[in-house]
Specification:
about 130 residues, mainly alpha, Multidrug-efflux Transporter Regulator, Chain: A, Domain 2, elongated, coiled coil, DNA binding, MerR family transcriptional regulator
């Protein structure tokens, strides 16, 4: 299968397929004319990578999932390393939620303080 066929079948761009290949996620055969040749299983790999990237995983973090597929598993996320990658991403999300929650509290406090601020003579600020 040619790169354009793989991209169309998997729902990605040719550029995305080339990127996945540059990251070592795909290893196409090279034909005598130098063209890349992909296997039908590569469609599953590309779809999996696309789905994982949409969850915020990096290309590097998708390796355990791809290895799980290449080991013959029907699902990419049933291997211990894949489960560890999920846990790691959840921890990252939890950290980000905590950071954003803290930021929201600080901004809300600043807004409340600014809305109630009065000049020395008790009048609201005149920003005219």
């Amino acid at each position: 299968m040619r790169i354009s066929d793989l991209a169309a079948e998997a729902g990605v761009t040719v550029k995305a397929v080339r990127y996945y290949e540059s990251q070592g996620l795909l290893k196409p055969r090279r034909e005598a004319n130098g063209y890349r040749s992909y296997e039908p299983d590569d469609v599953v790999v590309v779809r999996e990578v696309k789905a994982l990237l949409s969850l915020g995983l990096t290309a590097e973090q998708t390796y355990p999932f791809i290895e799980c597929l290449r080991a013959g598993n029907a699902r990419a996320d049933v291997c211990p390393a894949s489960l560890t990658a999920y846990r790691s991403r959840i921890e990252e999300v939890d950290r980000r939620i905590a950071e954003l929650t803290d930021l929201r509290v600080r901004l809300t406090d600043l807004l409340t303080d600014a809305e109630s601020w009065r000049t020395n003579d008790g009048r609201p600020a005149d920003c005219g």
